[in-house]
Amino acid sequence: MSALDRARRKAYWRLIPLVFLSYVIAYVDRTNVSIAGLTMSKDLGFDNSVFGFGMGVFFLGYFLLEIPGTLLVERWSARKWISRIMVSWGIMAACTAWVETPMQFYSVRFLLGLAEAGFFPGVIVYLTHWFTSRDRARALSYFFIAGPFAQILSPKISNLMLAIGTDAAHPKVMGMAGWQWVFIVWGIPAVVLGVIVFFAMTDRPAEAKWLTTEEREALEAELKRDREQHSTGKHMSVLDALRHPAVLLLAAAYFFIVTANYGVELFLPKILQTWYQLDLDAVTWLVMIPSGVMLAEMLFVAWNSDRTSERWLHASLPMFVGAVALALTPWSNGSLWLTVLLCSLTMGGARGYLPAFWALPNLFLTGGAAAGSIGLINSFGNLGGWLGPSLLGKVQVVTGSFEGGLYVLAGSMVLSGVILMGLRAYLRARVQ
Q1: pLDDT-flagged residues of the chain (< 50)
Q2: What secondary structure does DSSP assign to 173-197, as a single string?
Q3: According to a count of CB atoms within 10 Å of the terminal CB, is the N or C end of the chain lower?
Q4: Cα separation, 329 vs 338, whole angstroms
């Protein structure tokens, strides 16, 4: 192989497993509240309105530090910033075990969002320091599939802990119930990985002692050519990028799809338990199926998007398919396997678009402007992570049913796809 190909291969094997494993733990710590909530809400007396707001308030804290965190990765050090994030979020995730009141629940979730802010967009920016546009969707997909992988891995492990303290055969351990141990046990790996990241992650190719001199120079030259090829020739500041119409529309599209994604994802265990009176073991088996579909769809979208060099349709079409499936889901109540099938198609669409979507900002922005725009898109978009669960939980409490909320979330997915297709037409018209 050429020096460039050797460098590309080494970068994949050195960096992708590290960010993949970090995101697995991050995603578990962010979403394990949906599994823990199956017993936690009963022990603490939280209804679905309290539970939904608590799950979603994470994203309000997340919103505040996203852009500063992303810029620190671009201009300072991904290694140091991501290490700090992981240690602090592991500690905050474990602290959830000691909440007793709704306000304590809201507070610790808000602080968890502050602790994790900057990780997801920071890694996206970090990967642009190592992978050119032709490799980027594939590299991003290996990072993104950590989300569904976490959802396949964690439910059964968490379910084993949930049994603690439920009856005489499963007494409490150190005075704590199973849902408390879910938060503690999953918080510890984040702290450990934070230390590993500090010593194992390399910020840029020029600093990589695990590359030969020839490989470093070849990769840096290729990255420079790639940046020049996608540069508009006009210098754009971070502030200019944050006001760019395309960036604002991407943020709006991301907001609506994230609203649907987290609304369904965080309430899926409760929906299955409510509609079909399933026990904890059955619920934790069934929620793994949509995660498998998500994983497969992400990999396909990334592979085909890189193969065809097309991003817009690969980002929008999964959204439309997922929206149709979600709109049909309320009609499946009464048929368990049809519900699981439709939820799988919904979740596949609600996350399968990610590799193509996050390759879009770098089509028209570079450097600090691209980093700032990615931070803005992610921070504003993830406010949907607060709205979706809060909305679905409130609708269920007010109406006694999840159905109305699911229809609203389906409409939110449609809006995302429409915005992306409109933005595609807008940018093409400007070029012409």
Answers
A1: 233
A2: BTTB-HHHHHHHHHHHHHHHHHHHH
A3: C
A4: 8
